[in-house]
């Protein structure tokens, strides 16, 4: 059975609350890295607060964002492989983040001892893999405008089920531009356009209108 993003969040955070794995809490400021491409992989992380991103850098220095992480997401799961290999990606805080760092041996022990958790964790990884594939398709196929809409939706903090407007954590336009592979001036243009169309509102923090932004992704928004 697949899990929704909300169920993923509850699964990851509830798991950490139940089990004592000798975990370490890591707090990062925007643009700081949990680990860097090429580092040794000896631990797995679970994001508690904020947003982070996974990115890769090519041999010629070009950087691409692979996927965006939300609270409850595990990342760095390559550390669980039998043969240790260097990190293939860089995990960077998009805004202020808190994550739990779990040593490889501790995580593997729990996976062996708790079959129910192992099943849930596998489902989580499959669901995350599907989301990562969607992110890659988004980068290749969608316009910058749609990529920005999708990024804002992924970062929107979930509130009550009937709420249509949600805030996203503090983030700069420069960071949004890097995440979706465009320039800050283009992000500024799209943000102003989104606001004039009633898709978002922002003063101190960005507030998104979820149904309207989702309609943008589906090309179903009717201008009013």
Question: What's this model, at a glance?
Answer:
By secondary structure, the chain is an alpha+beta fold. The protein has seven helices and eleven strands.
What features would you describe in this structure?
The chain is built from seven helices and eleven strands. The protein is α+β, with helices and mostly antiparallel strands and 224 residues long. The longest helix has 27 residues. It folds into two domains: 136 residues, Jelly Rolls (Sandwich); 75 residues, Arc Repressor Mutant, subunit A, CATH 1.10.10.
Summarize the helix and strand pattern as letters. Answer: HEEEEEEEEHHHEHHEEH
Write down the Rg. 18 Å
Read across the widest sheet, the strand sequence of neighbours is 1-8-3-6
State the helix count: 7
Shape: globular
Report, as a whole number of angstroms, the end-to-end distance.
40 Å
CATH-defined topology of the largest domain: Jelly Rolls
Task: Considering the chains and any ligands shown, give keywords for the structure.
alpha+beta, Jelly Rolls, 2 domains, 4-stranded antiparallel β-sheet, 7 helices, globular
Topology of helices and strands:
Layout (H helix, E strand, L loop, with lengths): L4 H14 L5 E5 L4 E3 L7 E7 L2 E6 L5 E7 L4 E2 L14 E4 L3 E7 H10 L1 H27 L2 H12 L9 E3 L5 H8 L3 H13 L3 E3 L3 E4 H8 L7
Antiparallel strand pairs: 1-8, 2-7, 3-6, 3-8, 4-5, 4-7, 9-11, 10-11
Helix pairs in contact: 2-3, 4-5, 4-7, 5-6
